[in-house]
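Colleagues,

For the teaching module next term, I've prepared a clean inverse folding example: a structure given as tokens, and then the sequence designed for it. I'd like students to try predicting residues themselves before seeing the answer, so please don't circulate the second half yet.
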């Protein structure tokens, strides 16, 4: 296995993982995952499965806890709002972050702010972080040309700035296919998501990194890189002005409602517990807040209505969201970034439901499960 894994190519950055290494030596470690459907536990066939089986086998006396908070079709924008409740509050010693694919279509400047904010949250809380870069078809041309796709290259700038390890598992699997060690269908049966064979390929370089770091001498500097700086006490200044480091989630019960809204639990959308739900056009919400931005998270699907929103009584902006063929009636935890560049201070969010034609009929449902505030 290790003959296919070259530091500086697949393991792009090695380095110490002090908290999780100490946890392994103490005999109990908690491992977290944030990312999209390539990492999510829903099918039980993604790369965290062979990785956690390896941990249990390699360190049989260690009590292993896994908190896999990855969600399909979500990016680092929602990750920045979910990190505290899903991985940090549960005491994760190390968090594997996989957003190079799901952030691929996001503008560079914005994904820089969301990613750096997420990393700073994790590091400031004292967690170890490992970036894991997977693969999507849009990366193929860059790989053939020997280039690093922009979504990965930008992540690597942050990895160097903050001294965190990173692993390009997509390149490792792609090379296996090019060498005839695995067929494309074995790797990605649907063109994007690995199943058992492809997930094993993705797990291999992550295993190689952790075997060296966790299985080596205490305090060692694996792969020839110096140990990570004390990120908790000495985070560098943010590279991206306005990065999403300081965030909080508004209490849905505190939102001012006009119309037949219901605050209810939602069994249809992973990652959400409760939503503000309405099925008629013209229902309005209003939320005064203090900060510089707002992000909304919806239980979204083919039956969803569009909405319009505004800040401080200004002009309305209407959402126009696509509904891909894989989109169900509900169940997609989907974000809408209302604003992230407001003057810091007091503001008010206004929102109104609409009735608009959507493929297959009229969308009538609005289910808002997150109102995230950027401080």
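(Answer key — instructors only)
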């Amino acid at each position: 296995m290790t003959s296919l894994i070259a530091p500086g190519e697949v393991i792009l950055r090695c380095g110490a993982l002090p908290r999780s290494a100490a946890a392994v030596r103490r005999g109990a470690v908690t491992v977290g995952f944030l990312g999209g459907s390539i990492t999510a536990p829903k099918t039980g066939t993604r790369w965290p499965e062979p990785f956690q089986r390896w941990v249990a086998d390699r360190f049989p006396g260690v009590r292993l806890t896994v908190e896999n908070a990855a969600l399909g079709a979500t990016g680092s924008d929602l990750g920045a709002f979910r990190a505290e409740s899903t991985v940090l509050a549960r005491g994760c010693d190390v968090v594997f972050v996989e957003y190079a694919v799901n952030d691929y279509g996001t503008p560079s400047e914005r994904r820089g702010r969301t990613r750096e904010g997420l990393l700073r949250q994790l590091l400031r809380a004292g967690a170890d972080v490992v970036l894991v870069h997977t693969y999507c078809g849009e990366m193929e041309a860059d790989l053939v040309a020997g280039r690093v796709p922009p979504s990965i290259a930008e992540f690597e700038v942050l990895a160097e700035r903050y001294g965190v390890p990173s692993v390009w598992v997509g390149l490792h699997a792609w090379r296996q296919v090019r060498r005839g060690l695995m067929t494309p269908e074995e790797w990605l049966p649907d063109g994007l998501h690995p199943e058992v064979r492809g997930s094993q390929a993705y797990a291999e370089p992550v295993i190689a990194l952790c075997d060296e770091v966790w299985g080596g001498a205490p305090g060692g500097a694996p792969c020839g890189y110096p140990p990570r700086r004390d990120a908790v006490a000495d985070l560098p200044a943010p590279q991206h002005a306005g990065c999403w480091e300081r965030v909080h989630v508004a209490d849905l019960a505190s939102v001012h409602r006009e119309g037949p809204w219901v605050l209810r639990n939602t069994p249809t959308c992973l990652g959400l517990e409760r939503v503000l739900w309405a099925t008629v056009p013209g229902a309005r919400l209003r939320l005064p807040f203090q900060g510089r931005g707002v992000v909304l998270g919806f239980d979204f699907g083919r039956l969803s209505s569009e909405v319009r929103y505004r800040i401080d009584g200004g002009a309305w902006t209407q959402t126009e969201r696509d509904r891909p063929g894989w989109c169900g009636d509900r169940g997609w935890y989907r974000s809408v970034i209302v604003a992230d560049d407001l003057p810091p201070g007091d503001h008010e969010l206004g929102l109104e439901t609409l009735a608009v034609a959507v493929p297959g009929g009229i969308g009538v449902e609005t289910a808002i499960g997150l109102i995230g505030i950027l401080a």
